[in-house]
Amino acid sequence: MSKHTRILMCPPTYFHVNYAINPWMKGNEDQVCQESAMEQWQALRDLVSRFATVEEIEPQQGVPDMVFTANAGTVAGKRAVVSAFAHKERQPEEAYFARWFRNNGFEVGELPAGVRYEGAGDSLFDRAGQWLWAGSGFRSDEAAQDFLRDFLGVEVLGLKLVDERFYHIDTCFCPLTGGYLMYFPDAYDVASNERIHARVPAEKRIKVTEEEAAVFSCNAINVGKDIIMHECSERLRAALAEHGFEVHTTSLSEFLKAGGSAKCLSLKLDEPEQLEE
Ligand code: ARG
């Protein structure tokens, strides 16, 4: 059913940790094993391929975090807003991602100068409604939300992050098929939690614990009723199964050293899902 979903990934040919722009990277400089990173990425790619069609962007030297394609931009229909990275280390990725979007038939929107925004790391569509949750607090500015609304023609709801370990919303927030939501509430301020409560009914909110969030369980790829993640506690697996979801785990320990996991390593190209035929 969901084979139609296309997902963009970038091989970790040049993946490395040689700077620290989030708390997970600190102390992990030069600790990546290139060989196991490649193996783990390939295993993830194989797993994703069971549920979706994987497309690849060519990796580039000098931008080790380009493997995290979630940060390429935000896609809606045939339009894409390209990221404007907060840190200079990642800014050279913008041109590569913009070129890929243009070469693949997307109309590319560029944010007003000076507005920071990190793509699908900080923007996620609800899987039942048509609205886009957009994050701010660490990497993306609230000002980006007006542009997303205008250029993509979608409703945008803001979420404010308050815990630096969870610096993108996709590290602690995962909308699931049917309007469910798996998330770590403490990563958000009070107003954001109220906004979540107003949109997602209690029976559809699946909360994860701090320990589960800390192994990036929310940083998951959801296609249909299948969910791919790095690690899943028995408790969370059972909670998701109660709503008909099946969890598939695959180790991504090398990428956790850079502060990323399954979802960060992927970008859905057919968004929002409801636009698919
Ligand atoms: N090292 C990368 C960074 O700090 C990790 C990005 C993770 N991506 C994500 N979508 N959460 O930017």
Automatic annotation (TrEMBL):
Keyword terms of this UniProt record: Hydrolase
Zinc recorded as keyword: no
Lineage: superkingdom: Bacteria
Pfam families noted in UniProt: DDAH_eukar
Keyword Hydrolase (UniProt): yes
Similarity remark: Belongs to the DDAH family.
Name this polypeptide is given: N-dimethylarginine dimethylaminohydrolase
Organism in which the protein naturally occurs: Natronospira proteinivora
